[in-house]
């Protein structure tokens, strides 16, 4: 990758997050921190309003934006693979949201790239697995995680074969080989529990909020099950 392409890619990366650390940039492009500092200075000299906080990272000052981003053919191909994987994971809300953004991305491709994408779409399939558990709640649960909104759910328990009404504070989601799972604090049980999305019969967002729990992470959560006794 030449320097001009790298600097442009760094600018796009800076716009992709609220704050980006120098190490994130260095790791992505396999360059030294000194090179990162030099590239950031080049962007600043070109008039890009980049702010920084010691020990935190770089950020683009609010109000600045790039023109619509053009993507490469390889990046478009990666999106097609992602589309196939997502379509095989059973949650209708995720499929709908991803297809919507994919249409927008395809709209900026050149004619020959659209033709190549059309060829590829019929040549990729992630697996022939058909027994996934279907759901339609992932999009709403993701919003609850980011907005800190309590959800009420009607849940059909797998083990007790009964329906219960729960108030939950979603903390994270993960996908097994067949179903999406939400990890949440259950106000009924007063503990962190896991709920299969296909077992949720109804879901509603409330006006109640909950603490985001910044210290929660899936890696820490799952490490509890791998630590030696």
From TrEMBL:
Domain HTH deoR-type: 3-58
One Pfam assignment: HTH_11
SMART domains documented for this protein: HTH_DEOR
Keywords: Transcription, Transcription regulation
Name this protein carries in UniProt: YafY family transcriptional regulator
């Amino acid at each position: 990758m030449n320097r001009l392409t790298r600097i442009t890619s760094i600018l796009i990366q800076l716009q992709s997050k609220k704050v980006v650390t120098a190490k994130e940039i260095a790791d992505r492009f396999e360059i030294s921190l000194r090179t990162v500092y030099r590239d950031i200075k080049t962007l600043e000299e070109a008039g890009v309003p980049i702010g920084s906080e010691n020990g935190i990272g770089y950020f683009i000052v609010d109000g600045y934006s790039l023109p619509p981003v053009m993507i490469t053919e390889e990046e478009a191909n990666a999106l097609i693979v992602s589309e196939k994987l997502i379509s095989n994971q059973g949650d209708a809300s995720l499929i709908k949201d991803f297809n919507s953004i994919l249409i927008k991305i395809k709209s900026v491709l050149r004619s020959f790239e659209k033709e190549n994408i059309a060829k590829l779409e019929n040549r990729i399939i992630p697996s022939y697995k058909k027994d996934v558990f279907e759901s339609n709640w992932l999009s709403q649960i993701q919003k609850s995680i980011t907005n800190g909104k309590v959800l009420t759910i009607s849940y059909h328990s797998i083990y007790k074969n009964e329906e219960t009404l729960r108030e939950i504070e979603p903390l994270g989601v993960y996908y097994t080989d067949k179903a999406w799972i939400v990890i949440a604090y259950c106000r009924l049980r007063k503990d962190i529990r896991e709920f299969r999305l296909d077992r949720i019969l109804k879901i509603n967002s409330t006006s109640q909020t909950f603490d985001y729990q910044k210290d929660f992470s899936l890696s820490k959560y799952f490490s509890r099950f791998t630590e030696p006794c």
